[in-house]
Every structure is written in structure tokens, then in C-alpha cells.
Write a structure and sequence with these properties.
459 residues, alpha+beta, FAD/NAD(P)-binding domain, Elongation Factor Tu (Ef-tu), domain 3, 2 domains, six-stranded antiparallel beta sheet, five-stranded parallel beta sheet, 18 strands, 31% helix
């Protein structure tokens, strides 16, 4: 097989997955053209034209590499030299056991790194056609906000209509507008620094009123073509959760466990609203789990009834946008290439993975698969026992194509533990469960990752 390290690989989309893919290709000394339509064309959710802008939460979720699958994926990405994780670690803000970032500083860091790489050219333009014959190797990493014209081009290329769902955005509050005579700092069960979240308590009457307001509040109306689009279960609007039952939120993002109100320690709140730091300065806090499709006026009316937020000023109100993804198990090969067009790969959320970390990881793999293929070399698939391998396997064939929906990384995607396990006394452990099982799967994954890294070296 001939090699061509001078022909550029085209990456469409400058989000997390596209930026990571471009970076990985350039590390193989292959030129990249990174196409990003912002600022030529905006989206319903982005605020800037910066690369890798975070439009929903500022959290990359748990950083626990021992007991959490996404934390294990964090560890793997760092070991593989991920640009996104290098910039995330450099711009992290307090978030207990989670990795959260100053979203503006993070995006600036990614853009500066990409702009400073002489092998990467950023083309600010909207791509409306896919040209594998003219371009050669191409990665589509346009994410959940793929433009209508490009969506149509993808449908024409794949011969299979894209699926879609709505993704909701949580509001952001200025910290100095929060009433700390009612709110207080504390992490649930005092994790992290013990004071990484701001908490606002609701008694039973306040909680009942809040639920009723969510259900009765005016919502964003749908276009006719959007009415039957399903939500992603991991990012439901708060009013949809409220409609599922009055206790749904108090057992979900508003659960009062692990927290004590110092203003009234004798009475346990019926529910607690938590806010998490959103920027390095600590001036902005997002309301955790409050993705919403309420209108802007209703958001102010309803959320300002929360104790401590009566005079809240919003840096950004919540919103709703349409998300598109392809049927990965049906359309993609194990190396993320279209089965019908081997020079075209997909990466990020458009493959049907869900979440910042998952999107970035699939971008990393797509970039390396494309680069090694262009150099005439095979890039080994990551073992299924690793977080990378488990996620890749799920979206390229492990999931049922007939019921395929977006999925976060979780230990349910990993192969079961099949080797005998011995405790500290030398006795065989019959059955692992809970945290012990998660720890065993994480340890196995790290061992497999070490072996794989030794094989998957750069050219």
C-alpha cells in the first residue's frame, strides 16, 4: 500500500471531536484542513466562533478513574496525549470529584494550540457537500448541531436518514446575585474540597409549588418537523422529569441527601438545588441538572422562586436545540469509516456517543485511524476491556441497530470480569459487585491500555 503524508486529511467541524482529530493527525506529520462554519454561519446554541466551545455544561463529569467509567476514559485520554484533556486540566475549576473547566479559557487554549500548529489549516466556511473523491480521507465531526444542508448531504451519502433528539441547556447565574443568607457552600457528602457547590434548599411546600410551575409553565414551541423527535434520557429537560412524577426531581438532580443546611440544621429540606462553578474566576455558576425548554420569561419567574435565587441575575438562560446522529452500528466499520465509503469517517456525537469526553475520545480514534491508513499502516483497535474500546465497540456494532440511541460510557458496555479474583487472604472471590466490581474493571482496563499503548505507537 502506498503512503502519502503530504495530502491533507479534511476534518469537518471544529468542536471537541474535530479539534482532537485534527491534533492527532498533525502529530503523525500529516497536514489537516479543519473546516468550521462559525462565524460564517451560527448555530442556535453557540455563543462564539471559538473552537471546542462548550455549549451545555462546563463539566467533563467524574474524574474518578477507579470507580467511574468516564473517569477511566479521562485517564486513558490523558495517557494518549489528548489536546482536549491537556487544555481541560490547565483550565479546571473546583467541582468536587468532577473535572469542570472555565469554558472561555478552555476554548481559547484549544484554539491557540490548533492555530499554532503549522500542519493544521483552519478553513472558516460552511460545508454543504461531502467530496471523498476530490478530498480523499475525510472526517465528519459536526456534532449535534449539523447544518441542514450538510445533514442532507450525509443522508445522501449514507442512504440512511439521520436520527434526531433534543438536547437542553442549563441556565448560568452570576454568583454575586445569590442570597447566601439562604444558600450555602457544600459538596454532597463533602467530596472534593467539601464546598464546591452552592446549595439552595426548598421545603415541602416550596418544592410542590416548583413542580407545579414547571409542569404548567410556558414551553418553547416546536416546529412541525420537530414534534416527534425524542429526547436523550441522560439530558432531559427539568420539566419533562417533573411530568414523570412529583418525586422524580427530589430523587434526581434535586436530591437532598448528603447535605446539611447551616442556616437551619434541625430541618431537612425536601429538595436542594445545586449550582456548580462555571468559570475560573468563580463569578458564574450553572444550575446543575436544570436543562430546560421553558421560555425565557418563565425561567426567570420559576427559578427566582427558589430560595437564594430570588434576585438571581442570569448570564445565560436555558435553551433547547436539535441534535442529530447516524445509526453507527448499521453504517460504520470498526475504524469509524462508512461501510459504503471507506474514505469517510465520522467522529464525536454524530456517531451516537453522548457527552464531551466520549465525543473527544471518538475524535481521537478517528484521527489516528485516518492518519495511519494514509501512511499505509494499520492502527490496532483498542481492547474492549478499556473505556475507549468499550465505547468504540458499542457505536460500531455492539449496540442493536434497530433501537440505537445515544449512550454515555458506562461499565455496562465493558466485557464481564472472566478471570478468577483473589482477596488479600488468598481466597477466591465468588462474586464482585458495586464499587469492588468497578475497581476490578478499572484495574483490568488500565492494564489492557498499557499493553495497547505499547502497540499503538506513532509512525
Amino acid at each position: 500500500m502506498t503512503t502519502d503524508s503530504q495530502t491533507p486529511i479534511h476534518v469537518i467541524g471544529g468542536g471537541l471531536a474535530g479539534s482532537e482529530a485534527a491534533w492527532q493527525i498533525a502529530k503523525c506529520d500529516i497536514p489537516v484542513v479543519l473546516h468550521e462554519m462559525r462565524s460564517v454561519r451560527t448555530t442556535d446554541a453557540h455563543q462564539t466562533d471559538g473552537l471546542a466551545e462548550l455549549v451545555c455544561s462546563n463539566s467533563f463529569r467524574s474524574d474518578d478513574a477507579n470507580h467511574n467509567a468516564v473517569g477511566l476514559l479521562h485517564d486513558e485520554m490523558r495517557r494518549l496525549g489528548s489536546l482536549i484533556f491537556e487544555c481541560a486540566d490547565a483550565n479546571r475549576v473546583p467541582a468536587g470529584s468532577a473535572l469542570a473547566v472555565d469554558r472561555e479559557g478552555f476554548s481559547v487554549a484549544v484554539q491557540q494550540a490548533i492555530e499554532g500548529n503549522s500542519l493544521i489549516t483552519i478553513a472558516r466556511e460552511e460545508i454543504t457537500e461531502i467530496q471523498p473523491e476530490e478530498w480523499g480521507s475525510t472526517i465528519i465531526a459536526t456534532g449535534p448541531l449539523t447544518s441542514p444542508d450538510l445533514s442532507a448531504a450525509i443522508i445522501n451519502l449514507t442512504g440512511d436518514e439521520s436520527l434526531a433528539f433534543f438536547d437542553a441547556i442549563a441556565p448560568i447565574v452570576y454568583k454575586d446575585s445569590i442570597d447566601f443568607d439562604k444558600a450555602w457552600y457544600q459538596s454532597r457528602y463533602d467530596k472534593g474540597d467539601g464546598a464546591d457547590y452552592i446549595n439552595c434548599p426548598l421545603n415541602a411546600d416550596q418544592y410542590d409549588t416548583f413542580i407545579q410551575d414547571l409542569i404548567e409553565g410556558e414551553k418553547v414551541s416546536f416546529h412541525e418537523w420537530e414534534e416527534n423527535t425524542p429526547y436523550f434520557e441522560g439530558c432531559l429537560p427539568i420539566e419533562v422529569m417533573a411530568e414523570r412524577g412529583p418525586k422524580t426531581l427530589s430523587y434526581g438532580p434535586m436530591k437532598p441527601v448528603g447535605l446539611t443546611n447551616p442556616h437551619d440544621p434541625e430541618h431537612k429540606p425536601a429538595a436542594i438545588v445545586q449550582l456548580r462553578q462555571d468559570n475560573a474566576l468563580g463569578t458564574l455558576y450553572n444550575i446543575v441538572g436544570f436543562q430546560t425548554k421553558l421560555t425565557y420569561g418563565e425561567q426567570r419567574r420559576v427559578f427566582q422562586k427558589i430560595p437564594g435565587l430570588e434576585k438571581a441575575e442570569f448570564a445565560r438562560l436555558g435553551g433547547l436545540h436539535r441534535n442529530t446522529f447516524i445509526n453507527g452500528p448499521k453504517l460504520l466499520s470498526p475504524t469509524l469509516a462508512l461501510k459504503a465509503h471507506s474514505k469517510v469517517r465520522f467522529a464525536g456525537q454524530i456517531t451516537g456517543c453522548e457527552g464531551y469526553v466520549e465525543s473527544t475520545s471518538i475524535g481521537l480514534l478517528a484521527g489516528r485511524f485516518a492518519a495511519f491508513e494514509q501512511l499505509g499502516r494499520d492502527y490496532p483497535l483498542p481492547p474492549a476491556e478499556t473505556a475507549l474500546g468499550a465505547l468504540l465497540s458499542h457505536i460500531t456494532g455492539g449496540a442493536d441497530a434497530s433501537t440505537y440511541q445515544p449512550m454515555n460510557i458506562n461499565f455496562g458496555l465493558f466485557p464481564p470480569i472472566d478471570r478468577p479474583l483473589i482477596d488479600e487472604n488468598g481466597k477466591k472471590i465468588k462474586r464482585l459487585k458495586g464499587r469492588d466490581l468497578k475497581l476490578a474493571m478499572s484495574q483490568r482496563g488500565r492494564e489492557k491500555m498499557s499493553d495497547w499503548i505499547a502497540q499503538a505507537t506513532y509512525p
